[in-house]
Design goal:
Length: 184
C-alpha cells in the first residue's frame, strides 16, 4: 500500500491495524500531526532501533488513537446495521486468507489484530476490507463516494507482552472513547 506512513512488513507476523473513516480527524489536527511526523522522520533516519520505534509509536500512533477515540466526524459505524457490515467484512476470509484476532468496530474507526496466512499480504487484506465495506455502507445509506481514509496504521506485534497489551487496549477501547468524549 502506498502512502505517507512507514509500513514495516514481516512474513508470518501478527499486525495491530487501525483504519478510519475519512472524516474522523479534524483537518487542523491532521495537518499538525503530519507536519510533526515529517519533522520527526527527517530528524531520525532509518533504520530505527527499538527505542526510536517506541518513540514514534507514542508520539504519533498513540496520540492519533486518542483523537479517534474522541469521536470526531460522522461516526456512521455506530449505526448497528453499518457496524455489522464492517464486522462481516472482517470475518469473511478469517481462516482462509488470514487469522483474525481481537477486533472492534468503533464509531469512526476499526482496530484489529490480523495475521496474514502464507500467500496473502496485509495491504491486500486491508484493501479488501475497506473496498467491500465501503460499497456496502454506501448501499445501506443510499449515498456515493469513499468512506475510508486511504492510509491505515499497522504495527507489528513483537512479543507476547505487547500482544496482551494490545488485546486489552482493543477490549477497553469503547470505555476509553466514552472517557475522551466526556472530557471534551
Amino acid at each position: 500500500m502506498s502512502g505517507n506512513l512507514p509500513h514495516w512488513r514481516q512474513t508470518g507476523t501478527t499486525y495491530f491495524v487501525t483504519f478510519r473513516l475519512g472524516d474522523s480527524i479534524p483537518r487542523a489536527k491532521l495537518e499538525q500531526w503530519e507536519r510533526e511526523r515529517e519533522e520527526w522522520l527527517a530528524a531520525h533516519s532509518e533504520p530505527h532501533d527499538a527505542r526510536l520505534r517506541e518513540e514514534f509509536y507514542v508520539l504519533f500512533i498513540e496520540r492519533f488513537q486518542k483523537w479517534l477515540d474522541a469521536g470526531y466526524g460522522s461516526c456512521v459505524l455506530s449505526k448497528p446495521h453499518v457496524g455489522s457490515i464492517v464486522e462481516e467484512a472482517l470475518r469473511f476470509s478469517d481462516g482462509e486468507r488470514y487469522a483474525l484476532g481481537e477486533h472492534i468496530v468503533m464509531p469512526n474507526h476499526v482496530h484489529a489484530l490480523v495475521t496474514p496466512l502464507p500467500g496473502y499480504d496485509l495491504s491486500t487484506i486491508l484493501q479488501t476490507w475497506k473496498s467491500y465495506s465501503s460499497h456496502q455502507i454506501n448501499h445501506a445509506l443510499g449515498r456515493r463516494g469513499g468512506n475510508w481514509q486511504k492510509e491505515s496504521f499497522d504495527h507489528i506485534v513483537r512479543n507476547g507482552r505487547q500482544l496482551k497489551r494490545i488485546v486489552e487496549y482493543i477490549r477497553n477501547n469503547p470505555k476509553m472513547g466514552q472517557i475522551e468524549q466526556a472530557g471534551e
